[in-house]
Amino acid sequence: MVWEGGKATEGMASNAKGEVFFNDVPNSKTYKIALDGKITEFLPDSHRGDGQAFSPNGGLYACAGGVEKIIAYPDGKGEAAEIASGFRGNDLVVLHNGNVYVTEPDWDGTHKEHSKVWLIKPDASKSVVDTGLKFANGITASPDQSLLYVDDTKSHWVYSYQIQPDGTLKDKQRYYHLFEPDTADDSGADGMEVDSAGRLYVATRLGLQVCDQAGRVNCIIPTPNGKVSNIVFGGPDFDTIYISSAGGIYKRKVKAKAASSFAAPIKPAAPHL
Q1: Locate the SMP-30/Gluconolactonase/LRE-like region domain: which residues (predicted)?
Q2: pTM, whole model, 2 decimals?
């Protein structure tokens, strides 16, 4: 246990130092976990901030659900700048080239075409690059940033897309097959991260599901507080997993290390199948 007392923690993100940031969404606050473990209030009003991620230049990008905007704190603090508006984003990833991908779920559950993946380019232009998932939620990129991963909360699938030079997506496919409770029809998949070996970590209702490059779940790490909502690697060596779960934050030291999306792309070794 790192922190408790929130209503619904989400939006795990780490900066280049390994400091970790998270949101308590209903209370509209953002907190920072320093490298010495000290936790301070970072933003007194996050506008119901949800998913967030750091950019290559150190800016903190966030889905501000309360105002239906994507905002950024250019130097990681100070006044927020509007990046995009007109939709309520859930989670996002910022690539090394500055492209931002944002999920917009079908919030009211009326039609899957309302569930979208948006691309926001460095020039602030925005476009929809995918529709059709039941509830587009967690999003991240492969370590070499050639693939985009998006999980569908209301299924047991994480989808894979090939990122094109212009930022658009092609060759969409169901790739990672997640586990779910016998009594459920969905995995509850949420936030995701990758490590330097190409493994994908998915926050789900069963715990943290760890998948190999071939799309198989290798293990499920249970958590003390039930369903996991988000994950990030943090700490000075990026080898500590931080998760948000219900109203708390937990951490666990691991042998793996992060492949941060804001960093230069890397090509992991081929898996041992």
Answers
A1: 10-246
A2: 0.96
